[in-house]
Design a protein that fits this description.
This protein has helices at residues 2-19, 30-39, 45-58, 63-68, 71-78, 84-102, 106-109, 114-122, 129-138, 149-157, 167-177, 183-203. By secondary structure, the protein is mainly α. The chain folds into two domains: 2-23 and 147-220, Endonuclease Iii, domain 2 (Orthogonal Bundle), CATH 1.10.1670.10; 30-138, Orthogonal Bundle (Endonuclease III, domain 1), CATH 1.10.340.30. The structure holds iron/sulfur cluster. The site of iron/sulfur cluster has 14 residues, from helix 10.
Length: 237
């Protein structure tokens, strides 16, 4: 475990030195972060931005205004994000809970211990662990490490986790290894750590033909000739 802790902390130093601080999540309000976290499922961020721009042009980013839009109108606005009927249902479920149970106040939705708020979010239709943790970390100010498919691919290729590692396993490893910073600085650290992994996943650690030669994590590649491994796919909960 000590070896893994050293590797994961060094990974951040390398990624940060290469990319600088990434100031993720790109949104102008916590509600926009939440909407983006739902819309980004199975699509690129560029498509999410186009859908959010449509929402902003058609209605203010206010939970009550958005909830008043009927399904077909909202679906048309979300079309650039793909799977727009599914995402419309998910967005409306989230907005409905926010408006009807928390008076439209995100501060109230996010109030309480992290594990309780996480359970609350996971109880909403269409919100899984990655979406809930993204909302908690980037909109709610909660220490909830986000795991995604890029994280798992990078961890596997560096032999930092077994092939069968689940979302909870990977999250527990990250929390145990990356809690050394003072609590006041940890939110920013975890926010940027996830952003750095996403950047590495997009730019270098591609599903096929990873670009190890230019990647900041190259010094941490294991010596095994079997690596890097070709390992796409998502992360089981
Ligand atoms: S591209 Fe290569 S060096 Fe970079 S994270 Fe992936 S496996 Fe590691």
């Amino acid at each position: 475990m000590l070896y893994l802790i050293r590797e994961l902390r060094q990974a951040y130093r390398l990624m940060r030195a290469s990319h600088g601080h990434l100031h993720w999540w790109p949104a102008s309000s916590p509600l926009e972060v939440c909407l983006g976290a739902i819309l980004t499922q199975n699509t690129s961020w560029m498509n999410v931005e186009r859908a959010i721009a449509n929402l902003k042009n058609a209605a203010s980013i206010d939970p009550r205004h958005l909830l008043r839009l009927d399904h077909s109108k909202l679906a048309a606005l979300l079309k650039p994000a793909g799977y727009f009927n599914v995402k419309t249902r998910r967005l409306r479920s989230f907005l409905s809970v926010l408006v009807n149970e928390f008076d439209g106040e995100l501060d109230r939705l996010f109030a309480g211990p992290t594990h309780q708020v996480r359970e609350r979010l996971l109880g909403i239709h269409g919100i899984g662990p990655e979406t809930a943790d993204s909302m908690l970390l980037y909109a709610g100010g909660h220490l909830s490490f986000v795991i995604d498919a890029y994280t798992k691919r990078i961890f596997l290729r560096h032999a930092w986790c077994p092939a069968e590692a689940t979302y909870s396993h990977l999250q527990a490893v990250c929390v145990r290894s990356l809690s050394h910073t003072p609590r006041s600085a940890r939110l920013d650290y975890w926010q940027d750590y996830h952003a750095q992994l996403v950047m590495v996943g997009k730019e270098y650690c591609r599903k096929r033909q990873p670009r190890c030669e230019r990647c900041p994590l190259r010094p941490l590649l294991p010596r095994s000739p079997a690596l890097p491994r070709d390992c796409g796919g998502g992360v089981r909960s």
